[in-house]
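Because showing beats explaining, we let one protein speak, sequence and backbone structure tokens together, and leave readers to judge.
___
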Amino acid sequence: ELVSSLRSKLRTLWEERQLVLSEARECAGRGEELEAVVRELCKPNEFERYLMFIGDLEKVVSLLLCLSSRLARVQNAMRRIDGNTDAEEKQSLNERHKLLSRQREDAKDLKENLDRRERVVSGILTKYLTEQQLQDYRRFVQDKTSLLIEQKDLEEQIKFFEEQLENLEKSIP
């Protein structure tokens, strides 16, 4: 029953992932349309700023999500430490925790810098875009970020359930 339940949950997650990927493709299409408008209306250096911001948005959000996920896995492993865990493994987990914590703090600084750049890009776009186009831009940035987060969350859940299923199947004679 448990194997069947895990497989069912995985199927549901795979279907959700396909929906999110479809939404991401639609969002990318809106992004391309918006990019064409910005290219047409803005000065080349302003357009370049826009492109850099949009490119860095995905990179920084993905980096933050990845580091947070890794840090959570290390923290879970640290909670499982008991008297039987050897000192070398404890040391390794502590070092990985410190490293990932520092990296996540650096990524948060990158995100703050990205937020400042977003305000600059918004200021530039305000000079050229209509109110509706500005709303489309803001919705695009918000949707892109949300979809990245949702996609990463689904990937993590799928990975978790696949590991659970694999462990369960190995344990069944």
Summary: The CA atoms of residues 49 and 55 lie 10 Å apart. The chain is about 90% helix and 0% strand. The radius of gyration is 21 Å. Residues 1-171 form one domain.
